[in-house]
Structures are given as structure tokens and as C-alpha cells.
Amino acid sequence: MSKPMSTNDSAEPAHQGAHPVGAGGELHQPVQGDHPPLTTNQGLPVSDNQNSLRANPRGPALLEDFILREKITHFDHERIPERIVHARGTGAHGYFELTQSLAPYTTAQVLTEVGTKTPLFARISTVAGGSGSSDTPRDVRGFAIKFYTQQGNWDLVGNNIPVFFIQDAIKFPDLIHAVKMEPDRAFPQAASAHDTFWDYISLTPKAMHMVMWIMSDRTLPRSLRMIEGFGIHSFRLINASGESTFVKFHWRPALGLQSTLWDEAVKIAGADPDFHRRDLFESLTSGRPAEWEFAVQLFTQEEADGFPFDHLDATKLIPEELVPLQVIGRLVLDRWPDNFFADTEQVAFCPSHIVSGIDFSNDPLLQGRLFSYLDTQLSRLGSPNFHQIPVNAPQCPFANQQRDGHMQMARPQGRVAYEPSSLAPDSPRESPDVGFRTAALPESGDKGRIRAERFADHYSQARQFYRSQTDHEQAHIASALVFELSKVEHAHIPQAMVGHLRHIDEDLARRVADGLGLDSLPGAPTAARPVQDLPPSPALRIIGKMKDTLAGRVIGILVADGSDGGTVEALRAAVLGAGASVKIVAPKVGAARLADGVLLAVDGQLAGTPSVLFDAVAILLSEEGARRLSSESAAIDFVRDAFGHLKALALDRGGQTLLQTAGLRPDAGVVAGDDVAAFLAAAKTRQWEREKRVRTLA
Ligand code: HDD
């Protein structure tokens, strides 16, 4: 019988600075400096974290091994249910700073105390995909903020699109079941391009306005730092006299609004599924906070009565041209969470988390949401005590007589857990003066499963949105519809959709029908109300909201052995000076040996770092380098995609050779490698003029 060996029975005893190999083959870490003992969850120091307890060296494991059982049991329960929607999200800490007081309208201190920095946690998400899905599918982005105000937590749980698909919360499960992967086959993941989604939508005329938004490039953001955010619903602000003013909340990115192109987003998903998460991580951890303006639209009941739509209908927006935005503060995200699970996964947003001075409106979608979120947190986080998890806990005092429950962390003292009581005069009591009061507003009318008549105008704002877009944006919407509907197997569904499009814009319907190869235009369904021609709203465009800056953007420079160091350095310095960051790409990771013999550190290997990851590119190669890369498909793709995605290119002679090899002719967005000023100017925008040369748009 062989002699039983403990882990430390190797040639050298462990914990003496060497790297002894245990009987299990694991390398023991050398001991450097002080370290806390590894313990069980009960605090018992563990002597051996490599071997489970066995009857003999080659014998069975023993049930007695409570250390093994504790460790594996905990591991088995590490995952909690992912969110039914918005499962894929990225979060960060930051603060809100008020710059203009809304004191005439509200008692909410977060909106009246200018200069106060209110801590917050933000989570930005896609909607349809699972938590491990990629960052760049065509999808709405959730934009949820938890303000830790001194009067309690306020959650503003919005999206990057100011309208929604449906008007009544009772339809939310149907909508989500339709868009999520189909239940019999469990695909497609994170995609609306399938039968069940378009079937449901084609039977839901009220979704047409949102459809215009999701088919636009708004759902293909370049960066989470470059999206707008909207509270969507009308809320109420309540002032000290109890007067009410309606409000809509908006976030506007300091870096401007920017999207990718569809083909680009698809390729990014393969090149870097974590593209948005990594972008925010790199930005925040390198000291570049993400920032948004906070703006409000304020309006009275009388003004609302004059709108050509019902503002309580979440499928409608209030054009900025009708009610201008007032900027009242800024949101800064400046701290990446220490631990993803602790904060980003466990954060629990509820639209019902509100503060005094703000109140809900009668929007029926909002009213349903007030129920759903608290309910979902109970099953997702497993306990009514989820408010005690640090990321969810208020940062102001909070106290009541709620007690016990799963995972209770608090240790309330005394015998009184009720109110009123005479036994504990210092126990928490209600505060009639500062406590939350629902606005006392008259309600009348007949009870029933009913909807306001004006909610039935389903097409006017869809038309307004489409007709407000530039030619390029209209073409992208048409192409997106063609792509999505081409994936639908049942022919009657695209037909029905094109019928709806005829109410929005006859030309759009024709373009989509043509792209789908339909012989004739299907008939339009009967519209419940006449379609209004609302004035175009330029604020609804993306083009024009991209800021004339390189700040926050990333430039890729492709080099190889033999590239000219002076040109690379001049370009890099100028780009960094303009506030962008630079990544050097080369055939081999590590370093490239430049013409002068200097070794240039490389950030990414060519095949794994395609040009879709950059906002603009420079290709700086010696003739020999260009000749070698001319037979590399990754290099040809690099230049072809940058060109096809309408990016600026700075090319020296070697770069031009590669361009020619790729079969491309230069245009105004292709500048000389040493013309730094021209490159900086061109890189701030997309080369829209090029689009008709490289892509047939529906
Ligand atoms: Fe919702 C999550 C935004 C309608 C039910 N929703 C969720 C999140 C965002 C939104 C950003 C992710 C929060 C996070 O990061 O944890 N939802 C919206 C917007 C809506 C909307 C802007 C319409 C204007 N949602 C909506 C309705 C219902 C829900 C009508 C149900 C009746 N939403 C939920 C939910 C989720 C959720 C099931 C899933 C995870 C969670 O709540 O915490 O309760």
C-alpha cells in the first residue's frame, strides 16, 4: 500500500518561497508578504485548498468533507436569474450636479439645490439578448439611473429612445415574448429579425412610431457615452403650494450622438462582443468620465390639451420645437464598480422609487411599470430585503417597522415593531410636512378596460419622425426594414408591414417593397384616425448631433516593420492632442521595427483588431510592408471596411498601395499620411458622400 501523501509532501515544503507542486499537480503560490488566511465561510482556516478529503490516495471522496461541500454548494448557487429584459448591461458610479434650480416647480431637493452633487449608479443595457449576448445588436438601449438623494432613492428608468412600442402595460409580456428568441427553437438571440417579432408588430399599429426609431441608427450606438437618454413618460413636478407641472426628462451626451453603420455593428459583434462595455471601462479607468446634460421639458395641463397628440401615450413624444429643452444639470459617470456582480448585476431599479416633489402621471404604461419592477426584484434577488444590498441601499437614513425576511442584514433593537406605539416614543413616525404626498388631483369618468380616443393616432408621429430624417438616415431606415423583414418566413407578415408603412410615407413603403421583391404595394390597413402632417423636427436626427470633435474617439494606426516612425509619431501626437486615443495595429503583437530601427509597441494584432473597432484609421506602411500585406486578407479587410464604413483614412504611399490592392479609389475622406490637419478634420465625421459609391441603399 502506498503511503498517503499530503499536499505539502512534495520535495520542498510549501510556504517557503518555492513553487512546490502538490500531489494534485497544482502549483502552490509562493508566499510573499502578509496574507490573510483562506477560511471557510464560518471563519475556519483551511489547510489545503487543492485536495478534497479521500479515503486513501486513489480512493473515493468522503461525504464528511464539509469544506468541499461548502465550496461547491456556494459555487452551484453563484448565478441569480438574469433579468427577463435588459439582461445585458454595463454599470458605473457617478454623480448628478444641478446647475439650474426648478424650485418654482418642485420641492424635490435633487432638483432645487444648485451645486449639490448627488451620488448615483447608472446601468445601460440592451433589451432582448441574454446577459452573455454581444453589445452591438440592433436594439433599444436601457438608460437607468439610481439617484441616492438625501430624501431617498429616485430611480429614473428610461431608454435611449423617447417613445415605446405599446401604450398599456398589459401588452408588455406579449411584446417581450414576441421579440425574445422563439420558444420552440431558442433563437434568434438578441435580434428582432424574426417571424414572431414582426408578426406581433404587424398586428400592433401603435408600435409604428417606435419601429421608425428602432430601424434608425439610434439602435446601433457607437458608444454608451454617445447615446441620448429619455425618461419617456410624462411625470409631474409638485411645488410647495401643491401645484403640478408636467415634465419629461432627457439626457444628452457631452460627446454628441453617434452611431455605427449596420454592417459595422455586425462585424463589431464578432471582433469584440464586449465593445461597449470595454469602451466605457477603458474610458472610466483611464480617467475620462462620461458625461451627459440633464434637460427637462416643462408644460402645463392647458398646453398639453393643445398638443395634437396625447402626452400620456408613451408612443408619442413632445417635439423639442414644441416644448424646448431646458438644461438644468449634468450627469457624470466616473467610477467603474469594484465588482460587476455586486453592483451592476444586483442593482434593482424600480420606477416606483420616487422622491417628494415628483409624482407619476396617468400614463397607463407607467402605471403598470410601478408594479412590475418591485415584483421582478423579489424573484431576481430572492428577498424583500434587496434594498439592503449596498448598491440599492439609500445613502440617507431610512427606518420603518418592516422586519425579518430572507437575508435580513439589519438588527433592529427593542420590542416594538409597529406604529403607533407608546412603548417606543423614539421609533420612526410619519412626517406630514416632508413625507411623500400623492398630488391631490380630481379623477372622474367611467371605470372600464378602455383607452383615450386620441391614443388611436398611430401613424402621425411615425411619419413626422421619418420625414424629419436626412436622406442618408431615411435610406438606413428603409434598408433596415428590408433586412429585418427579409428574415421573416411567413410572406403575409412583410406584406402587412409594408401596408402600415404606406400610412407613414408612400416612398418608404415603395422602397421596402422593392427591396423585398414584392410585385406590388399591398393595401394599407384602415387607420383608426386620419394621419396628420406634423411639422418636421430636426432634433430627431442623428446626423447633425455628432459633435465636431475627436474627443472620446479612437483612431487605429496600421503599421508593419519598416513603417516611417516620424509619420506615425506626428499623427499619433496630433490625434492625442485632439482628445482621441490611439491604438497601434500591426501584423505581430508586441512591437513593430520601424524604418529607423526603433521598436514601436503594438496594441493589437491585425487579424484580431479590425478597423471596425476605430472611428478613423491611418495606414502607414513602407512599400515592402504594403507588398507583404497585400496578400493578407485581414489587411485588405482593414482598409476595405474602413472605406466602406465611411471613415477617414490617412495613407502614406504604402497605405495607398493597400487601398489600390483592395480595389478602392480615394475620395475627399482619404488624405495623405503626413497631412495631419486634414486627417483631424476628416476624422471628426463620417464621409457621407461616399456612401452611394459603396452601398446600394433600399
Ligand atoms: Fe422595463 C427592466 C426600461 C416598460 C418591466 N426596463 C428595465 C430596464 C430598463 C427598462 C432600462 C433595466 C433596468 C436595469 O438596468 O436593471 N421598461 C423600460 C422603459 C419602458 C419599460 C423605458 C417603457 C417606457 N418594463 C416596461 C413595462 C414593464 C417592464 C411596461 C412591465 C409591465 N422592465 C420590466 C421588468 C424589468 C425591466 C421585467 C426586468 C429587470 C428589471 O425590471 O429589473 O420588471
From TrEMBL:
Q: What is its EC number?
A: 1.11.1.6
| Catalytic EC class | oxidoreductase
Q: Which residues bind heme?
A: 83, 123, 172, 369, 373, 380
Q: Does the keyword Oxidoreductase apply?
A: yes
Q: Which cofactor does it need?
A: heme
Q: Which reaction does it catalyse?
A: 2 H2O2 = O2 + 2 H2O
Q: Which domain of life is it from?
A: Bacteria
Catalytic residues, per the record, are: 86, 159
Record-annotated Catalase core domain positions: 39-427
- Region Disordered: what ranges? 1-57, 418-441
| Record key words, sorted | Heme, Hydrogen peroxide, Iron, Metal-binding, Oxidoreductase, Peroxidase
Q: Which GO terms describe its molecular function?
A: catalase activity; heme binding; metal ion binding
Its Gene Ontology cellular component terms are: cytosol
- InterPro entries recorded: Catalase (IPR018028), Catalase_AS (IPR024708), Catalase_clade2 (IPR024712), Catalase_clade2_helical (IPR043156), Catalase_core (IPR011614), Catalase_haem_BS (IPR002226), Catalase_immune_responsive (IPR010582), Catalase_large_C (IPR041399)
Annotated Polar residues bias: 1-10, 38-54
Gene Ontology biological process terms from the UniProt entry: hydrogen peroxide catabolic process; response to oxidative stress
Pfam families, per database record: Catalase (PF00199), Catalase-rel (PF06628), Catalase_C (PF18011)
Briefly state the protein's biological role. Answer: Decomposes hydrogen peroxide into water and oxygen; serves to protect cells from the toxic effects of hydrogen peroxide.
By sequence similarity, the record places it as follows: Belongs to the catalase family. HPII subfamily.
> Which named protein is this?
Catalase
- Species the sequence originates in: Thiobaca trueperi
